[in-house]
Amino acid sequence: MATIRDVARLAGVSPTTVSATLSGNAPVSDELKRRVWEAVEKANYRPDPLAQNLRRGSTMTMGFIAPDIAAPWASHLARAVQKSLGGHGYNMLLASNEDDPDREMRDIALMIAHRVAGLIIAPTSLGEGYAARFAAAVTCPVVLVDRHVAPHRFDAVADDNSLGGTLLADYLRRLGHRRVGFLVGRPGISASFERFDAVQAAMAQAGCPLDPNFTRHSIHTAEGAYSAVQELMSRRDRPSALICISNPQVRGAMAGLMNMGLKVPEDVSLVSFDGFNPPEGWAPVITCLVQDTQALSDAAVERLLMRIDAKGDVAGDVAPEIRRIPPRLRIGTSCAPYAG
Predict the structure, then answer these.
(1) Which DSSP string do the residues of 5-43 spell out, in sequence order?
(2) Rounded Cα gap, residues 66 and 77, in angstroms
(3) Which residues on adjacent β-strands are paired with residue 288?
């Protein structure tokens, strides 16, 4: 196997010049570049990536860590992040922890041990003292996506949940719905309480505040949504519309309603924050918010590269920021005007 010294001998230059040409880390004249690359081709030289990484202290690889890659939003996000990174010459390592914060911490440690240049993480945000554990675990540049961790020590890129909540609330209100049920997600997840707070504020401002009797908290599985919807719709004064915040909630809610012999939108309207709907053929088409996944990924990668350029200082000279990406309301067939 050819070595860098073999290339240097063929090109008539020093090994240092060959290294500078291949890495691009130092100025080399066009003539020397030509001679080096001709020698590389003639010697069939292939750089040793491990040796390069050890010299650099990091790789041309970023890590992406998601709670559950089987969830449509996470798989779409992973694909978008990989595309964004590829546009900057980086590869991506992927890890999925199934919402297990202990496994998440191990994934972070493993990726840092493999000298990733940086991390993009959709944090689990679960467990006592999570923020402190997370801060201690992350010792390389990092940007959070979809969720953020309080206190805000890290950059984050997430949906504009305030705008999203307003869009959904205003749409239901224009259809005449005043009794609106809300399935709030997992406690501690920033997206869950942000979405609930946004709808609550929008409905209150419109003069029809959410009824606490129609709100169900800690609903983050299809099974939980199934039970919650059946309990809500068994009430004499049942809601005329339901708001879900995730794909599992939608699946559970629709199954629960179907089991009761209720139809959407004939008996109850339904909307969702999660625009990644179940497989084709699902009826009705759910009115939902569509996340601009590529814009979110591009913004996260750009911010991470900025942190890396700042010599890997996690805090850096620039204060961490949360950037919001506006969602888009997609009107389906799951809502109807309030019939009284």
Answers:
(1) HHHHHHHTS-HHHHHHHHH--S---HHHHHHHHHHHHHH
(2) 9
(3) 272, 330
Tens of pLDDT along 291-309? Answer: 999 999 999 999 999 998 8
User: What b/e readout covers 81-95, taking b as 16+ CB neighbours within 10 angstroms?
Assistant: bbebbeeeebebbeb
Give the CATH number of the domain where residue 10 resides. 1.10.260.40
Tell me 216's DSSP state.
E
Each residue's pLDDT tens digit, 143-167? 999 999 977 889 999 999 999 999 9
Q: Give yes or no for a contact between 121 and 304, defined as CB atoms under 8 angstroms apart.
A: no
> Encoding tokens for residue 133?
């554990």
In this structure, is residue 298 part of a structural domain? yes
Q: What CATH number is attached to the domain comprising 258?
A: 3.40.50.2300
Those residues with Cβ within 8 angstroms of residue 34's Cβ, 6 or more apart along the chain or in another chain: none
- The structure's pTM equals 0.81
- Taking residue 277's Cβ as centre, other Cβ atoms within 10 Å add up to 19
Q: How many domains does the chain have?
A: 3
Residues near 116 by Cβ (< 8 Å), separated by ≥ 6?
58, 59, 61, 62, 63, 93, 140
For 28, the domain range is 4-47
Of 128, 147, 132, which Cα lies nearest the Cα of 193? 147
